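Anyone? Bumping this.
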Amino acid sequence: MIVHYAAIDDREQRQSAAETLLFFLLAGAAMLFATFTAAYLIRRAGPDWTPVPLPTAAFIAAGLLVLSSVTLHVKRLKVTIALGVLFAVVQAIAFRQLAQAGVYLATSPHGSFFIMLTGVHAVHVLGGLLALCAAAAGRARVGLVAAWWHFVGGLWIYVLFMLKAL
Amino acid sequence: METTHKPARPWGVALFYLAFMAATVGGFWAIHWKMEVASEHGKGVDNMILFLLIATGVMFVAGHAVTAWFLVGSRREGSFRAPSPRAEWTATLVPILIVVIAAEAGVLTIGMPVWAQIAANDPDAVRIRIVGKQFEWVAHYCGPDGKWSEYDPKEVDGALNPIGIKDADYSDDIVAPGVIIVPLGRTVQIQIRSMDVLHSFTVPMWRTKQDAVPGMPTRTQVKPTREGTYEVVCAEICGLGHYKMRAFVAVVPEAEFKTAMESQDDYDALVEKLKKSGRFKVARPE
Amino acid sequence: MTMDHAHAPPSFWSRYIFSQDHKVIGIQYLVTAMVMGIVGAGLSVWFRVQLAWPGTAGLSPEQYLSFVTMHGTIMIFFVVSLALSSGFANFLVPLQVGARDMAYPFLNMLSYWTVVPACLLMLASFFVQGGAAGGGWTAYPPLSVIAPFGMTMWLLAMALFIASFTMSSLNVVTTIFNLRARGMTLMRMPLTAWSYLVASVIGLLSFPALTAAAIMLLLDRHGGTSFYMPAGLVVSGKPLSYAGGTPLLFQHLFWFLGHPEVYVLVLPAIGIAFDVIAANTRRPPHGYRISVYALIVIAVLGMIVWGHHMFTSGMNPYLGKYFTVATLTITFPFAALGVNLVASLWKAKLRINTAMLFALGLISAIGTGGLGGLYLGNAAADIHFHDSYFVVGHFHLMIGVVTMLGTFAAIYHWFPKMFGRRMNEPLGRVHFWGTIVPAMLIFTLMHFQGLGGMMRRYYENTQVYVQPVQGLNPVISILAMVAFAAQILFFVNFFSSIFRGAKSEENPWQATTLEWSAPSPPPHLNWPGELPEAPRDPYVYGTEGETDFQPQWAEPQKATK
């Protein structure tokens, strides 16, 4: 039987430890996407760069994430989780829209970045959804989970901006 | 349980420090590490290395000697009197300032000009191309028309067309796998390409090394200062044949080089002549 | 303070296998590192037979390259990082800062059980068609894109490793920032804890670059993308259909991790050396504050000098200039640490034990190896040395010898705390000498080989110009066998002392740092009663009075005069 226990007796210490944990998780994720940004800018200078039109579903998904940040802000956790799941579904539709336009993983470097970054971002969204469920079950601090969720939402806006404008 | 102990004098460790120091310094005489240099910038590279050998040699000997001395010659009997913070900072900063400034001034003043030489784009340089592929180096000259033919990967055909020259039958380019010929005393700009994976065009005796990057031609410059034949090796892991990716570069008088540049047959004839006359032997290190 | 957890009596599984106790996890990591170390070192002894006596090792060129690749990968990540960054960090950090455990014990358990499949996947890759990855631990494309399936397994194993390391480092950082004992300000932390803090922070910030690089490499390999693959490639006579990518991108991303990684590996060894030296010189380390600042400056500068691994890569020559200048600046803080280590021996009341021997050996290794860095960090000189045995000698001294000496110093020093017993001292000394002499000789000789132009990752050295220094290879290979054999003494000592070593008291070295106030070995939750406080500086050695030290947990007014 796997035993969970808290090594930290002091409530204040537990809160600040969680904040430190969150800070470095955010820092690591930020570095990951900073690296992808650098890779994008370098690859963009390549000889065969032709941008592909981004699927509308991706932008709808972005809107959903923004909405979910709002619902999270007013502490409607279950709605936020539902929006998060909906986000994933709409992203899947985005992939289908791309495929229908003839853009697959290797078709164009711009498309490759879109698909790859969507996938990597989705992993971070999944982590956020799990954290939200934990918060809904009272086992995680809402404040910190919210910070992660807002970050992940902002990240998606950033990724779209990068793919569209840069 | 010992709350106080008789302070030790670790002669063994001190001896190790001194012996290791002596062995390393002695190695410079006992080991045949020197390699002749046959290019102009190569002398600059060697000067840089020589400077470092002296500077780091002094630091290496001093560091080991001082440590050995501290170990056996500076023990204390009673309590420890901490130095003032100022004394502590001074004791740390002074050695590093001396050492680091000396070393780094040298690195910047001797090294940077050499780096600039290699990276330069001399308009008067003789231009040649080298194409690296698993596992050989192929020299590619532009021929009498002064223009390099294009490459077409689909036209690669074994030994007949190793680097995929487009319309090879109509090209006056000279293609020479394994044997590169360059003129003595002229600056040569070597444009380096790769057909498959990363390689690194390296002529140790020239102190020349430049990666061959697929999709991104690179270049380096060198002015050979000695006639002779030198080994070309690969310095970037490229697969199972990495260790035997070998070529030879022959430095010949400029007149001979110019003749060789007139046609593929002239080039091949010069190579034959070099081999037969024994001028194409790589010298063994002394 | 109440313990607000409740659990049923722990079963064998939750106590020893899926333990969430940082001490057990630390030992699990150490033992795993030992096993991987036997494999990693064994690979090098084997392939060195080929180098010294070509044709006699039973290795094809492909196998040789796989051995070299896997030796590097296993030693860096699965031995040194596992033992020092995960193993010792886990055991030591909570005890040294006065915490009951790491901040997130469950995460800690997960981190270990993530690295075990990573190890297994790495080892399994030897047995697939095409063998284990063979493009060097640096895995540059295009070679790593066209490589057989072992390369994919390598990438997946590295992904698991990075996940494990991240979880472990998050724990270290969170614990140090938040769970320090009352009174222990950051400037009262021992240098070992400081070095772990700094190393973990830079690890957390730099591994993501490798993750991104690896994801794109996997996509180029299996998804047909062209992140790194340019147009016009012809392999084995056949044109490939990639287009537009650049191999240099991978190199930049890889070394963005690769350079900070060496500090992740080496800084803990330096921190450990300071602690061991302090306890055995009965004086505080020289320049504690300077050393703390130096650690931080190295960490920051270490993130912006990665291009010195790429001087000949074809990147813009102006970048070559920048990276030379930037790399030179790291000499300052690094030399400061070296000077402080040596100065800590001044006016010492020396006690020589095996741990101290290893710490003293470390000083020679870091000085010698560090000086070699000046040749490599300098674009002009590096032309001669890039990809030569000079590089191999340099990095082995720094992240091989320094780290291993530091690990051994740590084990001999903290063994009494870990197991309540002492390791055998005479055997330890033989182990020390049997390790330090061959190790220093091997890698110093390699510097000479590099001067003589010997290239790394060569199956055989057939060039005419290199024959004089090729003659050193049999010497080096034999020394390697000696060093490998000497480790048998260590294993015998380590494992037999766990069960049969002389019993040790709580603080056998009369050391000042907080971990020594816990029982040897500490029970679950480390201190049976209240947590200790840290009203004192960490290195009050050399005092007057009944004892010559004041432990960090002793109240100042209780000092005897």
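Late reply, but here is one note on the structure posted above: Chain B has five helices and ten strands.
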